[in-house]
Amino acid sequence: MRTIRYHSYGNPEVLTVEEAPVPSPGPGQVLIRSEAIGVNFVETQRRRGTGPFPPPLPATPNGDVVGRVEAVGPEVTTVAVGDRVAAPVMGGAYADLVLADATFLAPLPDGIDAAQASILASPAQTALCVLKTARIRPGDTVLVHAAAGAIGHLMTQLVRHYGAGRVIGTVGSPAKADFAREHGTDVVVDYSTDGWTDEVLKATDGEGVDVILDSVGGDILLAGLDVLKPFGRLVFYGASGGTLPQVPAMRLIPMKHVVGCGLDQWWQHRPDDIRSGLQELIAHVTEGRLKVHVHAELPLTEAAAAHRIIEDRAQLGRILLRP
Fold first, then answer.
1. Of 93, 137, 144, 184, which has the most beta carbons under 10 Å away?
2. CATH class label, 126-265
3. CA 179, CA 162: separation in Å to the nearest integer?
4. What residues have CB less than 8 Å from 227, skipping those under 6 apart?
5. Rounded to two decimals, what is the model's pTM?
6. pLDDT of 223
7. How many beta carbons lie within 10 A of that of residue 187, not counting itself?
8. Are 164 and 142 in contact (CB under 8 A)?
């Protein structure tokens, strides 16, 4: 079978297509024949060795895999050979066949396409966990960073269903503004420009926002504290800007709450909430309330091109690889 691997950190060209033996599922694992693979931003950071957790080399990317179960390992009782599933795959995701932990599988209903299915593996679940962490209240004004991204364009849709009154979305370039508006954003601000916080204050008549959902980190997160209302909640769940934020404690004295959120942590501490949330998300998708936009579908062998699109900051929505 084919798999994508890299033996050194660097540009997208370090991603190479290699032949590998078909793996056998161990206890609690399943083997999936890939139909589509969702490509996530964080993999570009891991590939460069610049992310919070650079992988040991040689390495294979993680990803969101949609496909059918080819084989099941011992102790797997939740799925059977032939079932169509979506799964977050840790290592070896860009491949014809992949191993996945059966705990995290999302069994798929009939009629759901590969793009819709791919968001159920982790992006939509991440968005929902962030919203639950934020404890959205009816009428809240919510600021969503990276509103045109793979998770961001889902977040701006979901936040409405969980009570938000007004949604302000930030984007990294003017070209993404219309896309963000089409996916639920009332006001769009370009956070790559000086004075973006002034635009947020202007849009809220100087009051600021109740909630910030931040996947950018760094100076953007710190600047966001200036537009967060007293008793407001900022949820940090990613550092696409490349820098982990360092938040001075005195910035929180004006009754501002900052909390982190990780899908893996929800699985560890609130697994039943994750499982019930997945059913909510499937209903949102199948009933048309949550739509995924596919920016590009590329052959598996063009994984480097997929990473280039992301690093060029051209991405609108989801990028898929097709084996």
1. 144
2. alpha beta
3. 21
4. 143, 197, 200, 201, 204, 208, 209, 212
5. 0.94
6. 95
7. 19
8. yes
